[in-house]
């Protein structure tokens, strides 16, 4: 649809520009954007029954500075599960597996999100999102309509979340487990790639988490131990560490060792093995739990320990003498500089990293996808196909 009421032959250049620009905006508005959509919503903290398929969800409208996304694909992450079962609540002391039957739900009341604040239900989760921009809000260039984008999962808070240090797509506001979503234009990063939508959707959360850990710890051409190496973040960390010239030791189960070597690991260590002492410059830990003391002992003097997960348990034992006598540096890694995600998109576009995708499910089968994810049988990510195009 084109604007009317102007004579282009008589219009000056500025007016002509505005007319063309407005036509792009209306083109976005007049695309086949329905009033309702399908998606999977989280109705509360608990087991998989808290995930409900809905076909009557209102399609969101982009506010000023936002874009409307037609979601093409998403993926499953630990943070989806952690939020669903209420594991982030400080009252929870156990590992993630212990809460899968919904056992943490009661303790999550009032603070089951990563930020410690209560979530608003129903919530559309999905931190991973590959999408097409189909409409723009006020203040966003209409020419962005039609762009293929990846959504930055860890975002700087805008006005409505000014009390938080960080906002997560699919947690503090609705994410990619529906046919449409909105996000701020600055967090929708254009990507040019021949990879499929599902392959691209496997990158945002896991790979940006791994890259954030690597950048925070300053990993270079050094020796690094990666725990939980067969999962999404761990397998991403293998590739990203190798990209920096590191010698990678991946901690895993024997049955997955070959797959991790194929991803680039130089050596593997059984997750039940004793970690050799004073060997590693850096440890990237996604597991925590009872094995934590051995990981710290495995660092050389002046080594660095970075953590962004605790699936084996969040409460650990630390001998402070090891920390200070060996001059160990600790890095908790959640917040990310904006450049972490744009760096990642650059690596994708240059073919420096590749997706590690175990299998793909349709969005309607998200419960089954999470069950498969939690089986820990897979190496890499579980992809979710959203668009039926």
Automatic annotation (TrEMBL):
By what name is this protein known?
NADPH:quinone reductase
Where is the Enoyl reductase (ER) domain positioned along the sequence?
A: 46-384
Q: Which UniProt keywords apply?
A: NADP, Oxidoreductase
One Pfam entry name: ADH_zinc_N
């Amino acid at each position: 649809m084109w604007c009317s009421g102007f004579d282009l032959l008589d219009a000056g250049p500025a007016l002509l520009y505005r007319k063309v620009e407005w036509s792009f905006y209306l083109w976005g508005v007049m695309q086949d954007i329905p009033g309702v959509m399908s998606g999977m919503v989280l109705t509360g903290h608990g087991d998989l029954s808290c995930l409900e398929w809905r076909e009557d969800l209102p399609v969101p409208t982009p506010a000023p500075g936002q874009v409307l996304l037609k979601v093409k694909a998403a993926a499953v992450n630990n943070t989806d599960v952690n939020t669903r079962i209420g594991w982030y609540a400080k009252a929870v002391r156990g590992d993630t597996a212990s809460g899968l039957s919904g056992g943490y739900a009661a303790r999550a009341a009032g603070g089951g999100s990563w930020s410690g604040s209560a979530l608003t239900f129903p919530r559309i989760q999905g931190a991973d999102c590959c999408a097409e921009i189909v409409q723009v809000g006020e203040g966003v260039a209409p020419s962005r309509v039609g762009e293929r984008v990846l959504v930055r999962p860890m975002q700087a808070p805008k006005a409505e979340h000014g009390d938080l240090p960080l906002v997560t797509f699919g947690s503090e506001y609705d994410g990619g487990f529906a046919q449409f979503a909105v996000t701020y234009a600055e967090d929708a990063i254009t990507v040019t790639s021949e990879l499929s939508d599902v392959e691209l959707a496997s990158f945002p959360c896991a790979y940006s988490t791994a890259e954030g850990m690597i950048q925070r710890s300053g990993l270079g051409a050094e020796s690094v131990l990666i725990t939980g190496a067969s999962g999404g973040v761990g397998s991403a960390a293998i590739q990203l560490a190798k990209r920096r010239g590191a010698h990678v030791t991946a901690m895993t189960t024997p049955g997955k060792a070959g797959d991790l070597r194929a991803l680039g690991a130089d050596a593997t260590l059984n997750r039940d093995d004793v970690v050799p002492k004073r060997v590693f410059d850096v440890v990237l830990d996604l597991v925590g739990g009872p094995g934590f003391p051995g990981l710290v002992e495995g660092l050389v003097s002046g080594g660095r320990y970075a953590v962004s997960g605790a699936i084996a348990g969040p409460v650990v034992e630390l001998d402070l003498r090891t920390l200070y006598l060996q001059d160990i540096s600790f890095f908790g890694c959640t917040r990310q500089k904006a450049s972490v995600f744009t760096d990642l998109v650059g690596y994708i576009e240059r073919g420096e990293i590749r997706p590690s995708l175990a299998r793909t499910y349709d969005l309607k089968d998200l419960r089954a996808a999470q069950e498969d994810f939690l089986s820990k049988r897979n190496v890499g990510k579980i992809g979710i196909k959203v668009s039926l195009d």
